[in-house]
UniProtKB/TrEMBL annotation:
InterPro entries: AA_transpt_TM. Pfam families: Aa_trans. It is a multi-pass membrane protein. It comes from Populus trichocarpa (Western balsam poplar). This is Amino acid transporter transmembrane domain-containing protein. GO terms for molecular function: amino acid transmembrane transporter activity; symporter activity.
Length: 457
């Protein structure tokens, strides 16, 4: 007697009863970290925290490297392309879920669609590097926010940046023990509110300073010789790509309870509504207020010669809000790392909170945070390195692979607009990614002479 494949409804029922997917029911990472219990609204919270992060405070600097028209155009194009590519990625994931193979990880997705080598040697390592790099960058930013708060209250204080990074790392040691991605849903709702709040404070602060008697001269010309301008523009593209980057769409969709159809699209609408309100307001107001004198993080412009241009309480509140949200972002980007550890060291035959599973989880997650904190303290110029990560990581994962996955999976007609539109996005973004990587590496080489380990920047 022949075997009949289950329908998508039956597959959804199996998923609901047995976990993420029947084929992965013994996978501790899938069962313990990527719990498929969330709603589309929870998905929106996760997406917003993973994208709308304090990295958006560097967008005015990106505009200063490109000028008004190219900078704003890049912001708009990046928003359109990433929304489109994330939606394509979601459709591909939904398609495989309907045929009985729900893909819970980016690596697994690449293995199924492009072959085992792509997942094992390309997508897996790149995603791990991107996510862990984001954790290091967040811990560094958390330390810088703590230092900024300290200097507001103690202008002549003697504490060094690496001490604040270590303090923030201790906080992350605690938060890293949150058991699953789904457990972060309420934290990520608070994170969404925090992002709106500090973006509003930053925008209002920029507008106030730009209209005040202390306003700096507004010069929107691009500094440097032509060669530096070209490299700077591609470096700005890497910064924008990193800001819009996600890199964990499959893992976020894995947290959604089946059936998954349409839920990611609703979550994306929530996320991009927040993006429009935050990214564009901060980028445009910051560049308008400070022009080509805009610093790598716009909040630095709010201080001149260690004197605040805004009331101290405004700066304090903005930095506290940023500090709180960066903690949530760090925990989100720890999830793929946690998934790897859980899959390797945990045993799905035992309860998630049994001694057998709690001890290796505590040890592995703690070591992960300790190493990330040490890197952040040693290399406080990690912002430059993060631009390289954006070029090598976020552009392939978020701009290139989604359109390739869609074309390979659904095989749109080569005579149609969909196929050639996707192919054009892949080719153009690949070229931009290579040029962005070259520009980012060049910037590291130029800045290397000014850096030292454990520098108090």
């Amino acid at each position: 007697m022949g075997t009949q494949l289950p329908t998508s409804v039956e597959v959804s029922e199996i998923d609901s009863e047995e976990g993420p997917s029947s084929s992965e029911q013994l996978d501790a990472g899938a069962l313990f970290v990527l719990k498929s219990r969330g709603s589309w609204l929870h998905c929106g919270y996760h997406l917003t925290t993973s994208i709308v992060a304090p990295a958006l405070l560097s967008l005015p600097y990106a505009l200063s490297l490109m000028g008004w028209f190219p900078g704003v155009l890049c912001l708009i194009l990046a928003a359109l392309i990433t929304f489109y590519s994330y939606n394509l990625l979601s459709l591909v994931l939904e398609h495989h879920a309907q045929i009985g193979r729900r893909q819970l990880r980016f690596r697994v997705m690449a293995e199924d669609i492009l072959g085992p080598a792509w997942g094992r040697y390309f997508v897996g390592p790149i995603q791990f590097g991107v996510c862990y790099g984001a954790v290091v960058a967040c811990i560094l930013l958390g330390g810088q926010s703590l230092k900024f708060i300290y200097l507001l209250s103690t202008p002549k204080g003697s504490m060094q940046l690496y001490e604040f990074v270590s303090i923030f790392g201790i906080l992350m040691l605690v938060l890293a023990q949150i058991p699953s991605f789904h457990s972060l849903r309420h934290i990520n709702l608070v994170s969404l509110v925090l992002a709106l709040a500090y973006s509003a404070c930053t925008t209002a602060g920029s507008v106030h300073i730009g209209n005040s008697k202390n306003a700096p001269p507004k010069d929107y010309s691009i500094n440097g010789a032509m060669q530096n301008r070209v490299f700077g523009a591609f470096n700005a593209i890497s910064i924008i790509a990193t800001t819009y980057g996600n890199g964990i769409i499959p893992e976020i969709q894995a947290t959604v309870a089946p059936p998954v159809e349409g839920k990611m699209f609703k979550g994306l609408l929530v996320c991009y509504a927040v993006i429009i309100m935050t990214f564009f307001s901060v980028a445009i107001s910051g560049y308008w207020a400070f022009g080509n004198q805009t610093k790598g993080v716009i909040l630095i412009n709010f201080m001149v010669d260690e004197k605040p241009l805004l009331p101290t309480w405004v700066l304090l509140m903005t930095n506290v809000l940023t500090l709180l949200q960066v903690a949530a972002v760090s925990v989100v980007y720890l999830q793929p790392t946690n998934d790897v550890f859980e899959r390797k060291f945990a045993d799905a035959k035992f309860d998630q909170f049994s001694i057998r599973n709690v001890v290796p989880r505590l040890v592995s997650r703690s070591l992960s945070v300790i190493i990330a904190t040490a890197i952040a303290a040693m290399f406080p110029f990690f912002g430059d390195i993060n631009a390289v990560i954006g070029a090598f990581g976020f552009i392939p994962l978020d701009f290139i692979l989604p359109v390739i996955f869609y074309n390979v999976t659904f095989k749109p007609s080569k005579k149609g607009l969909m196929f050639w539109g996707n192919a054009s996005i892949a080719v153009i973004c690949s070229a931009v990614g290579v040029l962005g990587a070259i520009s980012s590496i060049r910037q590291i080489i130029l800045d290397a002479s000014t850096y030292s380990l454990f520098a108090n920047v």
